[in-house]
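Write out this protein's structure.
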Amino acid sequence: MDCNTAQSYIEPFLHNELTDDEKESFISHVNGCKDCRNELEFYYITYSVFDELDHDENGETYDYIAALDRKLESSRKTVSMRRAIRQIAFIAALIIMALVAMFILLH
């Protein structure tokens, strides 16, 4: 993924509007590109500040970068889990087809 594409994915990423493949490519890119990571941090902090203004009851400083890291990791895990489930379902379908084929051939 190039920087222009990654930067166009920032807002859709923050609003959970990317497909799993788009999300995976985006996360990979921002983890390896300092400029895009900085742009993502800027947008994330900006959105988060507005979201958190009403929720800062303790007067504590909110760690936006840590929250962004958690969002990136959570999204990466979600993509990985969905990919693993699709692979398991594919393998299960192959096994079922093989068993049906064996049953047909033996009878």
